[in-house]
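Field log, afternoon session.

UNIT: design team B
ACTIVITY: writing a sequence onto a fixed backbone
BACKBONE:
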C-alpha cells in the first residue's frame, strides 16, 4: 500500500473548496451546522478574538486556483420548521476562484466565492451569495511588512443556525420570506514586525466591518435594518517562537460596535485578552490552544454588560499515515441575530475522524455540540453529526455520499427542530486539469491560504 498516496488522498478530501474558510484535515467546524454570518468567526481558529493569521502559509505558487463543490441532498425538514416537517431536495453549488501572484517582492491575493442553493419544490428557499476578498502584502524592509486587506459581498443565513434570527419573528408568514439576506464589507491593515526574520513577531492591526440585514418587517414593529452595525477594532499581537515548531502568543483587542439605528441601545465597547500556545511536538501531533477574557460594556447603562472567560482549542493527531483525528472546542461572546437579546455566550465542542480505507476510498465522521446561552434567559442546544464516504476518481475530482442529522432544543418556544439529510457530493480542484501543474504536491490552495479574520464566509 502506497503511504504517500494515501496521505495525499486524505489531504484532498479534507480540504473544502471555499476560498475564504480556514480548512484543516477533518475540519469539524466546516461540516454540518453553520453559524450566522455575524458569528462565523467563532468557528475559525484565527478569529478576531484569537491569534492573527500571521502563522498561516504564505508560499502559494503564483497561479489561479479554481475549484467547485456540488451537493445534492434530500432533507426531512429542509426549512427546519418547529411546527411541522417539510421534505425537499436541495442542490448547492459553490464555485470559487483565487489568484495569487508576486508584484516584485510584494504579494497579492484575490478570491471569489459563490454559493447558490436551489430547492426542488420550496422555491422560496432558493438563495445565493457572492463574495470577493483581496489582500496586498507589502514587503517594506527586512523586518517590517504591511498587509492591506478588504472584501465585500452579499450573503444569506440558512434557517435554524447558531446565532441566527428566528423566522417566527417576522410579520405575516415568515416561513415564505426566504432566508435572511445579509450584506457586508470590511477593510483594514496589519503592520507586522519580524515575520521574515525574528523569533519574536508583533502585529498592530486595524479592521472596519459593516453588516446589514435586508429582510422584511418584524412582529414587534422593528425593522431588520435596526440590526445593521459597524465595528471598528484595533488589536496588538505578539508571537514568540522559542522552539522549531513551538510558540506562545498573546493578543489584546479593542472593538467598538456602532448600530446604525438612532433608536438602538446596543452600541458597545468590547475588550478581548488572549494568551495561547501553538506547538507540534511530533509529525503526528499538532495543535493550538488559547485562553483569555472578554469584557463587553454597553453605552446604555440599562443594558447588561458581559465579563467572562473565552477559550479555544484545535488539536490534530495522525494515528497513522492514513488516519487522522481532530478535536476542537471554543467559548466566545457573540452579537445575536435575535432582536430581543443583547448578546449570547456560545460554547462549542467537536470531534472528527478521517480514515483512508484504500488509496481511493476515504471515510469520515464528525460530531458537534453547541450551547448558546442568551442574556435574556434563552438557551439553545445543538447536536450535529454526520458520516461520509468519498472516492477519489481523479486527481481533480472526488465524489462521495454523506448522511447527517441536526437537532436544536431551546427554552424559547417555536424554534426547536430536527432535520436529517442524505446526499451526494462532488468536489473538484480544477487547477490540476491545467497542463504542467499536476506535479505540485504541496497541499496549499485557496483553502489553506487563510483570511478568515478578514472575511466572512458565505453560508
Amino acid at each position: 500500500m502506497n503511504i504517500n498516496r494515501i496521505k495525499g488522498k486524505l489531504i484532498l478530501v479534507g480540504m473544502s473548496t471555499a476560498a475564504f474558510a480556514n480548512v484543516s484535515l477533518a475540519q469539524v467546524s466546516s461540516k454540518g451546522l453553520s453559524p450566522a454570518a455575524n458569528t462565523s468567526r467563532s468557528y475559525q481558529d484565527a478569529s478576531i478574538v484569537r491569534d492573527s493569521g500571521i502563522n498561516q502559509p504564505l508560499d502559494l505558487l503564483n497561479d489561479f486556483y479554481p475549484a467547485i463543490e456540488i451537493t445534492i441532498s434530500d432533507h426531512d425538514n429542509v426549512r427546519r420548521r418547529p411546527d411541522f416537517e417539510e421534505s425537499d431536495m436541495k442542490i448547492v453549488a459553490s464555485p470559487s476562484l483565487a489568484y495569487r501572484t508576486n508584484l516584485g517582492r510584494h504579494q497579492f491575493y484575490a478570491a471569489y466565492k459563490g454559493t447558490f442553493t436551489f430547492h426542488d419544490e420550496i422555491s422560496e428557499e432558493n438563495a445565493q451569495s457572492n463574495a470577493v476578498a483581496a489582500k496586498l502584502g507589502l514587503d517594506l524592509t527586512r523586518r517590517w511588512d504591511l498587509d492591506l486587506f478588504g472584501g465585500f459581498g452579499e450573503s444569506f443565513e440558512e434557517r435554524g443556525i447558531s446565532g441566527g434570527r428566528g423566522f417566527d419573528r417576522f410579520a405575516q408568514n415568515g416561513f415564505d420570506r426566504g432566508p435572511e439576506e445579509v450584506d457586508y464589507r470590511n477593510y483594514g491593515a496589519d503592520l507586522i514586525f519580524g515575520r521574515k526574520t525574528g523569533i519574536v513577531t508583533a502585529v498592530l492591526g486595524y479592521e472596519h466591518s459593516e453588516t446589514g440585514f435586508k429582510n422584511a418587517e418584524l412582529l414587534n414593529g422593528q425593522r431588520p435594518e435596526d440590526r445593521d452595525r459597524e465595528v471598528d477594532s484595533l488589536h496588538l499581537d505578539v508571537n514568540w517562537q522559542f522552539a522549531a515548531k513551538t510558540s506562545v502568543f498573546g493578543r489584546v483587542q479593542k472593538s467598538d460596535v456602532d448600530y446604525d439605528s438612532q433608536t438602538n441601545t446596543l452600541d458597545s465597547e468590547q475588550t478581548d485578552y488572549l494568551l495561547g500556545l501553538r506547538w507540534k511536538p511530533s509529525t503526528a501531533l499538532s495543535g493550538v490552544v488559547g485562553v483569555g477574557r472578554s469584557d463587553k460594556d454597553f453605552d446604555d447603562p440599562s443594558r447588561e454588560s458581559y465579563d467572562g472567560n473565552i477559550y479555544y482549542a484545535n488539536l490534530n493527531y495522525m494515528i497513522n499515515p492514513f488516519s487522522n483525528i481532530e478535536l476542537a472546542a471554543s467559548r466566545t461572546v457573540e452579537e445575536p441575530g435575535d432582536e430581543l437579546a443583547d448578546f449570547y455566550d456560545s460554547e462549542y465542542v467537536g470531534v472528527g475522524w478521517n480514515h483512508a480505507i484504500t488509496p481511493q476510498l476515504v471515510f469520515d465522521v464528525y460530531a458537534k455540540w453547541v450551547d448558546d446561552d442568551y442574556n435574556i434567559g434563552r438557551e439553545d442546544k445543538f447536536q450535529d453529526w454526520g458520516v461520509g464516504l468519498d472516492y477519489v476518481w481523479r486527481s481533480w475530482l472526488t465524489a462521495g455520499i454523506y448522511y447527517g442529522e441536526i437537532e436544536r432544543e431551546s427554552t424559547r418556544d417555536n424554534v426547536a427542530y430536527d432535520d436529517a439529510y442524505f446526499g451526494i457530493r462532488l468536489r473538484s480542484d480544477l487547477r490540476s486539469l491545467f497542463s504542467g501543474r499536476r506535479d505540485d504536491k504541496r497541499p496549499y490552495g485557496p483553502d489553506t491560504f487563510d483570511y478568515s479574520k478578514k472575511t466572512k464566509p458565505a453560508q
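LOG NOTE: Residues 265 and 301 are 9 Å apart (CA to CA).
NEXT ACTIVITY: expression trials, pending approval
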